[in-house]
Amino acid sequence: MVRNRVHTELIAGLDIGSSVVRLAVGQLSSSKDSTPRLQIIGAVEVASEGIQKGQIISIEDTVSAVSHALEQTEKLVGVPISDVWVGVSGTQIISQESKGVVAVSRTDGEIADEDIERAVEAAKAVAAPLNYEILHVLPRTFAVDGQTGIKDPVGMTGIRLEVDTKIIHCVSSHIKNLSKVVYRAGVDIDDCVLLILAAGEVVAGSRQRELGCVVINIGGPTTSMVVYEDGDVLHTAVIPIGSSHITNDLALGLRTSIDIAERVKVEHGECVSKGISKKDVIDLQDFGADKSEIVSRYYIAQIIEARVSEILEKVDLELSRIDRSGMLPAGAICIGGGSKIRGMVDCTKEVLSLPAQLGYSMGMDSISDKINDIAFSPAIGLVKWGSTLSHVGKRKFVRSNVVGKVAEKVKGIFKSLIP
Question: Which of 26, 61, 136, 284 has the least CB density, counted as fewest CB within 10 Å?
C-alpha cells in the first residue's frame, strides 16, 4: 500500500529494437516531505519480430511483439499501461544546424520564456529534407544583441535574440509505422524521442556532459552515438553496424548456426584477444551443435575483436568530423546489448584513445535488477525523459518533438477500432 503520497503516476518507455523489445516503467512519486523521485518499478524484454535493420517490415508481427511486452509488464506492475514514450532509432535519422532570430517583444527589453519559444520556432522554419519531419529541436546557445555563448537568456535585457539549434529529422514513414504499431497494441503515444538522446540523459552525468563525452549505444543492426560538450548535444550519428554483425561473423568463422554463434558470443565472447591462451578451447556441441567441434577461444576473440574495432573506428571517424577525436575529457560511455561483451571497455579505450566505462542508469531508485543492465539504459532513459518533461519543470520547447500530423490521424482511426 502506498502511504503519505500526494502524487503517483506511471511513465513507460518503449524501445522497439530489431532483436529485442524492451519496456521500462517508472513511477514518479512525491510525498509531503520530499521532492519527486523517479523509481523504476518494472522492466521487461521480449523477442522482437517484424523488424529488420531498424526498419519495420511487418506491422502485424511488430504489434504482436509490443503487445506481448505490454502484457508481461502489466502483470509485473499490476496496473494497465495507457501510454508510452517511444524510442526512435535507425539509419533514417539525420541532423542539421539552424539559427532562429527574433526581436524581443517587451517594451522594456526584458527577455521572457515566450521570446525563447518564438526564437526556437523561427529556427524550425528551415526546409526539411523530402519525406522527413522534425523529431527534435535542441537549442544549444543563445545570443543577445551580439553577445554570444548565453545558456539561459531569460531575465536579460536586449533588442535582438538569436538561438543556435540542432534539428533532428526522421523519415516520416518510419514514425508513422511506429505510431501504427503502438496504437494497434492498444496504448497512446506521449511522444517519439530519439533513443540515443534519451539514453544519454540517464547514463551521462551533468559534469560529464559539461566536460565532453560520447555515449555509444551498440544495438543489434546499428550503433548510435551522441556527443556532448558544454552540457549540450554537439553531434549525433548512426553507424549501420552492430552486435548482430558480430554474431554473423562468428557464424561464418566457426561454420555454425546463428543461434549457436549468439550463445558463444554471449557466454564466451571477448573483445580483446591478447592474453587468451590458444590452448583454451570450447566444444560447440555444448551449445547445440550436432557433433563435437573444438574451437579455440583465442580464435573466437579475434573474430569479435576485428568487428568491434571496426565499429569503434567508425565512431572515431565521426568524432574526427567534429574535431573531437581523442579530445573528450569525460571519455566514452558504452551502452546497449552489444556492450556486454567482455573487454568492451578496454577495447574502447584502445581504439578511441579516451577514458571509457559502461553506462549504468544514474539518479533513480529501482525494485528491478534491470536498472543495472546496460541493455535497458535506452528504455530507462525514455522513462527519465518523460518524467523530466512532465514534472521537473524544464521548458518543453527545449526538447521539442513531434509525432506528426498523419500519425495523429492514424491514432484516431485505431482508437475507433479498439473496443
Answer: 61
Bridging pattern class, strands 213-218 and 332-335: parallel
Q: What is the distance between the alpha carbons of residues 366 and 378, in angstroms, rounded to a whole number?
A: 16
**Residues for the chain: how many in total?**
419
User: CA torsion angle for 396, 398, 399, 401 (degrees, to 10)?
Assistant: 70
Domains contained in the chain, number: 3
User: What cell numbers appear for 340 in the block?
Assistant: 556486454
State mean pLDDT over 242-257.
96
Can you give the CATH number for the domain in which 250 is found?
3.30.420.40
Residue 21 placed within a domain: yes
Q: What is the pLDDT of residue 17?
A: 92
Give the pLDDT mean for 367-394: 83
Distance CA 372, CA 256 (A): 32
Please give the biggest Cα pair distance in the chain: 83
Residue 50's domain spans which residues?
Answer: 5-90+172-204+362-417
Statement: residue 410 has pLDDT above 80: no
Residue 215 placed within a domain: no
Cα 222 from Cα 213, distance rounded (Å): 20
Give the model confidence (pLDDT) of 97-108 as tens digits.
Answer: 999 999 999 999
Q: Say if CB 23 and CB 15 are below 8 A apart.
A: yes
